[in-house]
Here is the input.
Amino acid sequence: MSEQPKNEAPESSPDGVVVTRTIAQPLSRVWGVLMTKEGSEALLGRGAMLGEKGQAWKAADGRSGVIRSFHPREQVRFWWRKNDDAPASLVDLRVAAPDEGHTELTVTHTRLAEGVDPAYLQGRWEAALERIESDCF
Here is the structure.
């Protein structure tokens, strides 16, 4: 019987939002899911794909950005904007293995524009990590 995943409560600060989820799967499995169409779309939006540093991306709903850093099985950082007229904010996804059977995903969303609702972003990143977790099983 597999151990239940540990989900930590999201945090927010005046500077950004942090959401962490521990998945009861090895890092190789979770990273593999992140690199699929479904994993990329969970983070970026339908139609968008994670890629190498410097690659631009655009989702069907108008969200867009550029991959700023890409370190396989460790970290992906990207600019994220809600639409072409919105200022860019920074999303950092960290991937770590606290042990062989678990993977911790942490999304940190910073450089938020004035007026952005942190509660909305918390919910958005919680849903993304939940979707990635469900795709791991």
Q: What stands out?
A: Residues 11-135 form a domain with the Alpha-D-Glucose-1,6-Bisphosphate; Chain A, domain 4 fold (CATH 3.30.530.20). The radius of gyration is 14 Å. The first helix runs from residue 27 to 34. The chain has one domain: 11-135.
